[in-house]
Design goal:
The protein is an all-beta fold. It is built from no helices and eleven strands. Strands 2, 4, 5, 6, 9, 10 and 11 form a seven-stranded mixed β-sheet that branches. Strands 1-3-8-7 form a four-stranded antiparallel β-sheet, with no helix packed on it.
Length: 124
C-alpha cells in the first residue's frame, strides 16, 4: 500500500513558477512508476508527466513539454513537478499517481495509487 500526499499548489500569475511535491508513505516507493495528472472541472483528466521507477525515462504531455519537469528523490519518497512559464490553461487540480506495473505511462487507469490533489490557479 502507498499513500500519496500532494503539496505546493496555489495561486500564481501567468508566466510564474510553482513546484509541486508528492510525498509517499510505505516502503519501496523507488519501485513505483510515478506520474502527474490534472483535471479542470468539466474536463477529462489530462496526463501531465511521468517518470519511470528507475528515473531514467520521463514523459510529458504535449501542452506542458518544455515548461514542466518531473523528478524524483527516492531517498525522500517524493516526486516533484517543477512548473515554469505557467499559463492560464494550466489551472487545474493536480494529482500524483503511482503504480508498480504500468504498460502505458500516459494512461490514468494504469495507476493504482492516487493522491487527493492540489489546486493550481494561474491568474492573468
Amino acid at each position: 500500500q502507498v499513500q500519496l500526499v500532494e503539496s505546493g499548489g496555489g495561486l500564481v500569475q501567468a508566466g510564474g513558477s510553482l513546484r509541486l511535491s508528492c510525498a509517499a508513505s510505505g516502503r519501496s516507493f523507488s519501485n513505483y512508476h510515478k506520474a502527474w495528472f490534472r483535471q479542470d472541472p468539466g474536463k477529462e483528466r489530462e496526463f501531465v508527466a511521468a517518470i519511470t521507477s528507475s528515473g531514467r525515462s520521463t514523459y510529458y504531455g504535449d501542452s506542458v513539454k518544455g515548461r514542466f519537469t518531473i523528478s524524483t528523490d527516492n531517498s525522500k519518497n517524493t516526486v516533484f513537478l517543477q512548473m515554469n512559464s505557467l499559463k492560464l490553461e494550466d489551472t487545474a487540480v493536480y494529482y500524483c499517481a503511482a503504480s508498480m506495473n504500468v504498460l502505458n505511462m500516459k494512461v490514468d487507469d494504469q495507476y493504482a495509487y492516487w493522491g487527493q490533489g492540489t489546486q493550481v490557479t494561474v491568474s492573468s
